[in-house]
Write a structure and sequence with these properties.
The structure holds 2 protein chains of 2 kinds.
Chain A lengths: L1 H14 L1 H28 L11 E5 L20 E2 H10 L4 E12 L9 E8 L3 H5 L3 E4 L4 H6 L3 E5 H8 L8 E4 L2 E9 L23 E4 H6 L9 E2 L12 E9 L3 H20 L11 E4 H8 L4 H31 L1 H9 L4 H35 L13 H27 L3 H7 L1
Parallel strand pairs in A: 4-9, 6-8
Antiparallel strand pairs in A: 1-11, 1-12, 2-11, 3-4, 3-11, 5-8, 6-9, 7-8, 10-11
Chain B lengths: L3 H9 L1 H32 L10 E8 L6 H13 L6 E5 L13 E2 L2 H9 L9 E2 L2 E4 L4 H5 L3 E4 L8 E2 L5 E5 H7 L9 E4 L5 E7 L16 E4 L1 E2 L4 E7 L5 H15 L3 E2 L6 E2 H8 L1 H35 L1 H9 L4 H38 L8 H25 L11
Parallel strand pairs in B: 5-11, 7-12, 8-10
Antiparallel strand pairs in B: 1-13, 1-14, 1-15, 2-13, 3-4, 3-9, 6-10, 8-11, 9-10
Classes of the chains: A alpha+beta, B alpha+beta.
Chain lengths: ~425, ~400
């Protein structure tokens, strides 16, 4: 029966080629636009570290004075940590692993002839950074807690930077001039670029940037390296990065299970209470927070307002296209009332009629889905040519590919449901009389 | 024209007619808001910067020699740049209108306002003070930018200082009017950041800030006779528009030649027009997408109207024939379908008007869009009526062509 209905559907669609083509075009456009934007949204809200994200948490303290007024244009100072707080959290060792960090762009003066000085982005961090985030090493390793304490002048290079500076040579043990200081290479990491770069603060281009070097936070401070994180202070400070009224550091912790999470949350509250008792904090200790990685990313709202607007626009367009197709199919099926009543009079059951028309709408949906897939690829190609930091991510993966077809089939079957149901309700006798 | 037969015929197609009405309503609501958003973005993209943009280009230079005297470096660089053939003006600046990097100072009209603002611990409270962007640069910045001085004078050579400790300032007209409403701002003293008065010696007509905020504060900006004293500086060059690319190339070579201890990022070497384009790139993309979806919606709706009318004409061939046989003219048949379409579209527009405001309210909370002005709705209604009539014309003409003899045929 299925083959017969398919044949009937194709004949019926052929009878009005222009209209069929336009219906397919409409559903294809709607699906193509929606899938383009859904894919962009999908890649932007992806998990940066699928194997570890469940164990990574971002604490937050509130060291602001009671009367602090948040400016509408400036960043929230509480998103980052002051030096004393970050160091206290790292030193407390209440989590499996914990690290404080900040971003920096440094000038490298290559010793090699033919290479001009250049700026490169990297991270200043404490020792647990590598083990906690699982940064893969090609050679060598990170630094120890002793290096942190001793402000050792060492650096870990990314594979890209190591190749740029030393070609295929082993760079371990070599010296690199960062700013005005020589740092010894102790490790080379594989190129590692979580998307988004969740541990950087809001000032970074989180979908595009990658760290090319890592060095101990204490060393960076010792050498007075600049940070490119947001620096917010709520009281005057004399350029001292260790000031308790200046936030600029990020802190991440690794916690194994719910019990550890609860314990750490309590620890943050206790720490805040203690600071309040000391007179440093003014706000209630319960302002301290602990966010899971994905939860934290949700709160950061990394998807630009324009992208969300484009998604709504695409979905609105799809909705109008669908209503359009429901109306057209309804009119088309009802015009064949005579044919339906003859079939019903000859013994076709309602479900046969329903199936027949359902297949006809599914054929349109399938064709629309194929067209929509092509249009979505075109749309994603155009998104990739935008100069935004997320642009290069706009690629369709298998799940979105399947999603496109599911959406197309869902849309067309939904669109065909009402007309097919309406058509199978046609009474045989009443319609026969008018013939 | 009697409405009764049309209405009674429509009541037989309740479902289909209401679906079409819903489609028209959604199209009306979305298209009105889309057009409004396009108008907003176009206004944004075409904002006048106050700068004579045509002949301007710039490049950044980041010194990597910490020991050098920066003021001397900048002066020597500028002398070299002025010698580049085709360059008519060259100045060093810290930032530019639409240049994104912005330094702004809480600025008050008088010492009393400043004291009150400090007491209230907020520069913005009660509208006492504002936060204008500040532009610093070497002598000749006003001329090189091509700003339009509407009162007072430009800075004198002896007024330039290294650092922000200036005594005079040139305000944008919007800022002058905000700080001294109804008064002549010239000769007044503003208080920016510190307790020292800064005398207003000039007012320029339009001057946009480096980073746009809300429309009412976009032109809060002032110029200080503040020599750039950072390792990173922007050199602004004026030349004939067709010379810009060549001048930029030669300028970069010249700078490299004068001192190799610097980095000239390729991304910062561009004309003002390119910088403006980059600044508004997201808005231009959005305008394109909004236009495409607006036209797409209208096209799909027209398609729906034509398709449906087509089916209805085919379905009613016989009744049209009968009507023709008992005396209806071709014009009557034509008008019948046109009126039917008018009724459906009108119903859609009525519902669409309501939806347009609901949608606008949602957009206002999510995207800081202003309220939809009411005049968009009658225009939207006219467009949809016109579109509906155009879309139904083909099927209606085909209906009018049905001969009366059809009535005598059995099927």
């Amino acid at each position: 029966m299925f083959g017969y209905y398919l044949d009937l559907a194709l004949r019926s669609l052929k009878r009005n080629k222009v209209l069929t083509a336009l219906m397919v075009l409409a559903i294809g456009l709607g699906i193509g636009a929606s899938m383009t934007m859904l894919t962009v949204l999908h890649v932007m809200s992806g998990d940066p570290l699928p194997e570890r994200s469940g164990q990574l948490y971002c604490p937050q303290l509130d060291p602001l004075p009671l009367k602090y007024q948040q400016s509408a244009y400036g960043p929230d100072p509480r998103l980052n940590f002051t030096w004393p707080d970050a160091m206290a959290l790292v030193a407390a060792h209440r989590a499996e692993r914990q690290a404080a960090m900040a971003g920096g762009a440094l000038l490298i003066r290559p010793a090699q002839a033919g290479l001009r000085p250049f700026y490169v982005d990297g991270r200043y961090a404490t020792t647990d950074f590598f083990a906690m985030f699982g940064v893969p090493f090609l050679r060598g390793q990170g630094w120890s807690a002793a290096d942190d304490a001793g402000r050792t002048r060492v650096v870990v290079l990314s594979d890209t930077l190591s190749r740029k500076l030393f070609g295929t040579d082993d760079s371990i043990g070599r010296m690199v001039r960062f700013g005005d200081a020589d740092l010894r290479v102790i490790g080379v990491s594989a190129d590692w670029q979580p998307k988004p770069m969740f541990y950087a603060d809001a000032s970074a281009k989180v979908f595009d940037d990658a760290d090319q070097f890592f060095l101990p936070l204490s060393t960076a401070l010792d050498l007075k390296f600049d940070t490119n994180s947001n620096q917010s202070s709520w009281s005057s400070f004399e350029g001292d990065m260790k000031s308790p009224v200046l936030t600029w550091l990020q802190v991440w912790v690794q916690l194994k299970d719910a019990a550890q999470v609860a314990a750490y949350r309590q620890f943050l509250i206790d720490y805040s209470a203690q600071q309040k008792a000391l007179g440093r904090f003014e706000r209630p200790p319960t302002q301290a927070r602990l966010y899971g990685l994905m939860n934290w990313l949700d709160r950061q709202n990394l998807v630009p307002a324009d992208v969300r607007l484009q998604l709504w626009l695409a979905l609105g367009f799809l909705l109008v296209c669908m209503i359009n197709i429901v109306a057209l199919l309804l009119a088309k099926f009802l015009r064949r009332s005579g044919e339906v009543s003859v079939r019903r009079a000859l013994g076709a059951r309602r479900r046969d009629i329903f199936l027949q028309f359902g297949i006809e709408s599914a054929v349109i949906g399938l064709a629309g889905g194929v067209l929509g897939l092509a249009i979505a690829q075109l749309g994603l190609w155009s998104v990739r040519h935008r100069p935004d930091d997320y642009a290069h991510l706009a690629q369709m993966d298998v799940s979105m590919l399947i999603g496109t077809f599911v959406l197309a089939m869902l849309a067309s079957v939904l669109a065909g449901l009402l007309p097919a149901w309406r058509a199978c309700r046609i009474a045989p006798a009443l319609q026969l009389k008018t013939l | 024209m009697q409405l009764r037969p049309i209405l009674s015929s429509l009541s037989h197609h309740k479902l289909t007619a209401s679906l079409l009405m819903l489609q028209v309503a959604l199209t009306c609501a979305i298209v009105c808001n889309v057009v409004f958003m396009i108008a907003n973005r176009v206004e944004q993209v075409t904002l006048p910067s106050g700068v004579d943009e045509a002949g301007l280009s710039m490049l950044n230079s980041e010194s990597i020699d910490k020991s050098e005297n920066r003021l001397a470096r900048h002066a020597a660089d500028l002398a070299g740049l002025r010698a580049v053939p085709g360059v008519t003006a060259a100045v060093a600046v810290d930032t530019l209108p639409l240049g994104r990097d912005e330094s702004s100072y809480g600025t008050c009209a008088s010492a009393e306002d400043l004291a009150k603002a400090i007491a209230a611990r907020s520069m913005m409270r009660d509208g006492l003070c504002v936060q204008p962007a500040v532009y610093g640069g070497t002598q000749g910045e006003v001329g090189a930018l091509g700003l339009h001085l509407i009162a007072g004078r430009d800075f004198r050579a002896d007024e330039y200082v290294a650092g922000s400790d200036v005594h005079v300032a040139i305000l944008s007209r919007a800022l002058a009017e905000k700080l001294y409403p109804g008064k002549d701002a010239l000769g007044q003293s503003v208080y920016a950041g510190g307790a020292k008065p800064i005398r207003v010696i000039g007012i320029v007509d339009t001057l946009l800030r480096p980073h746009l905020r809300a429309p009412e504060v976009n032109q809060y900006a002032m110029l200080f006779p503040m020599l750039p004293n950072d390792g990173e500086v922007t050199y602004l060059l004026r030349s004939a528009p067709q010379d810009r690319e060549r001048v930029l190339r030669m300028a970069a070579e010249k700078l490299q030649q004068l001192s190799p201890e610097r980095i000239i990022p390729a991304s910062g070497m561009r004309t003002y027009a390119q910088m403006r384009e980059a600044y508004f790139q997201r808005d231009t993309t959005m305008i394109g997408l909004l236009l495409a979806s607006g036209f797409g919606l209208l096209f799909v709706t027209a398609l729906g109207i034509t398709g449906l009318a087509n089916f209805w004409v085919q379905q009613r061939r016989r009744s049209i024939g009968i009507r023709r046989a008992i005396g209806a003219t071709r014009g009557d048949t034509l008008r019948y379908f046109q009126t039917e379409n008018f009724l459906i579209v009108s119903g859609g527009i009525a519902l669409g008007t309501l939806l347009a405001f609901v949608l606008n309210a949602a957009l206002m909370t999510q995207y800081e869009l202003p309220r939809l002005p009411w005049h968009y709705l009658p225009i939207g209604a006219l467009v949809l009526w016109g579109l509906g009539q155009l879309a139904v014309l083909g099927p209606a003409l085909r209906a009018a062509a049905v001969p009366p003899v059809v009535a005598t045929q059995s099927v």
